[in-house]
Amino acid sequence: MGPVGGLSIQNPGRTDARIDVRPVVGNRIELTKGRSMSFDGVSGVVLRMPDESRPSLLAQRVMAGLHFAQFGGYPMRWLYFLCGMVSCAMIATGLVHFCIKRRRKYAEQSVASRRFHRLVESLNLVVVAGLSLACTGLLWANRLLPVQLAQRGEWEVSVFFLIWTAALAHVLWRPTLRGWTEQLAVLVLLCMTCRC
Predict the structure, then answer these.
(1) Structural domain spans, the chain
(2) Residue 151 half-sphere exposure toward CB, CA atoms < 13 A
């Protein structure tokens, strides 16, 4: 089982006392959930051994451990965060550079080609900036909607899609460069003022 991370005693001083021993979380890449042992609190007899790590179960636990990043402590979690941000920036800049590269080509073609390219640029903007705006709006809705509101969760989801739709309408109405500037400015304002 490895190093002990915690103990819990149930029904102390009684005949049905039970002791659960949990491993340290984060000392292995393998997700350690479900790896605890249980003992009879009176006799010390083992009631439950840790789950056996068959190759398929071990592979599943390693994948879950990589997903939840419980190993390596905070430095590993910050590395995951930074790698995620770099990946998002790579996708966003790739979308923008693709549209800029293609803009001249479509400008020389037909009106339909220019309209199609404008639609692609607008969709890129609404997927990158508009989606971030909608996610931040969801956090604001979670903070501002009354707790006792009936179907509160559905209202939050509705606010998310309403903001995303408004971002799409905005970018179809405004030129693309101004759309980027305005939506990102609103996003920064919402993020800086949100205490979620």
Answers:
(1) 4-68, 74-193
(2) 5
